Amino acid sequence: MSSKEAVMNEKEENIKIHETAFVTSSFRAVDEQLSQDHFAKLWENPKTTQWIKEYLALVSPEEPFTHCLRNRYFLESLKALIEQQEIEVVINFGSGFSMYPFLLHEKMVHIEIDKPEIVDYKKNQIQEWQDQELLPKRNIHFIGVDFSKNYQEELLASIQSIKANKSTFILLEGVLFFLTRAETNHLFEFFDSIQENGDYVGSASFQDSIKGTQAFQNLLRFFNQKVSKTTEDDYQTMEDSYYHSIKNYKVIDHQDYFSLSKTYKHSVKQAKELILNENFYLLKKN
């Protein structure tokens, strides 16, 4: 095991469910009008609220809105493609506690993929809320995957058995930052094996320039205090050129926090160096 793998394993062991999936959902609930996610608030809890308070004070007060706009961008992209009858299945890699199935048309098929403990918890909680009529029924398939093992053959079989010949949109948000470049390359090769021409991928990532900002240094300091000892080399950043070089895929749209803020008339409060500016890409297989 490499030193980086050891660090990442330690990090994964120290980050609890409430510190990742819960926090992201709580961020999306801060401004429902901006995120258009009216169900994210279901995941809020006192422990997460305190964790977020510390995060916003130590890292960036703008962070909830970056997550709101990420959700808005992919939600609007999905809605447009559904309306145009271009996609039938949404495959969410690293789905966390995102609520896209309940924000989209009921005809859609959803495949939610994450670590077993995440999807098991989410599946049980969603069933409970559906029993209480807090959530509508949806066609959701949950798949727990240990990404540290050789998962691809079994996962491919599971996905193919669900989607059959249906057109797909693969969503990848909040994942690439924690992967190596080799793991990322394998992931996009795996997507290529799943999808047909005309299918889509939506991806979120940070560019290299983020590492020179005060916000990123604040994030590292926060991780070192709250999670485990890491350096900037433990996190992946990706330039536009990477997406344009992916075999069999073409970038058809590219946005970031600032462009989306203009689109959705969100007022940015902080200076650029105090914001973790995430980039969003829409790719089409051809």
Question: How would you describe the overall organization of this protein?
Answer:
By secondary structure, the protein is α/β, with parallel strands linked by helices. The chain contains twelve helices and seven strands. It has helices at 3-14, 21-29, 32-35, 46-58, 63-83, 100-103, 116-131, 152-163, 181-194, 214-226, 240-244, 257-263; strands at 89-93, 109-114, 139-144, 168-172, 200-205, 249-256, 279-285. The chain has a seven-stranded mixed β-sheet with strand order 3-2-1-4-5-7-6, sandwiched between helices. β2, α7 and β3 (139-144) form a beta-alpha-beta unit. α2 (21-29) packs across α4 and α2 crosses α5. The longest helix has 21 residues, at 63-83. The chain is globular and about 45 Å long. The termini are far apart. The model is unreliable at 1-15 (pLDDT under 50).
